[in-house]
Specification:
By secondary structure, the protein is α+β, with helices and mostly antiparallel strands. It has one domain. Strands 1-2-3-4 form a 4-stranded antiparallel β-sheet, with helices on one face. A hairpin with a 5-residue loop joins strand 1 and strand 2. The longest helix is centred in the N-terminal third of the chain and has 38 residues. It is elongated, with a radius of gyration of 25 Å.
Length: about 140
């Protein structure tokens, strides 16, 4: 027969297995979110992988302290260098994603939205000068 200590150990083992199984599902969701974020920014997620860095108490969007799983991943913009990104997950919910500073690739649409100040001033000559004596 099982003693109370044996039952406690079995229950502890089952709880640990369930926690690890759930963690695997959260890791898969973190990978999907990293892929989506990289695709949105038109950068490449390297190795198609996120790695669990650890667990930490962090504040969520509402300011509550919660247990967060922290994941690291690598990405590239130009293909020449590997840059690092990280994300935090509160259960199945995304906490935040941070990327290392990287060069931004401009597209034709981005350059169409750029306004050069000298051209703007030429096209708007009727604006009165500023009161502080500066002309811009």
């Amino acid at each position: 027969m099982f003693s109370l200590a044996d039952m406690t150990l079995v229950m502890l083992f089952v709880a640990c297995c369930a926690w690890l199984w759930r963690g695997h599902g959260i890791r898969e969701r973190a990978l999907r979110l990293a892929r989506q974020h990289c695709a949105k920014l038109d950068i490449e997620l390297l190795d198609e992988n996120v790695a669990l860095r650890g667990l930490r108490l962090q504040r969520d969007g509402r300011g509550h302290l919660r247990l967060a799983r922290l994941y690291d991943f690598e990405f590239t913009v130009t293909g020449d260098q590997r840059l690092r990104g990280n994300l935090s997950m509160f259960g199945q919910q995304l906490g935040h994603i941070e990327l290392d500073a990287h060069p931004h690739q401009t597209t034709a649409q981005d350059s169409a939205n750029v306004v050069h100040i000298a051209e703007w001033k030429r096209s708007h000559p009727s604006l009165p000068p500023r009161r502080d004596g500066s002309d811009g």
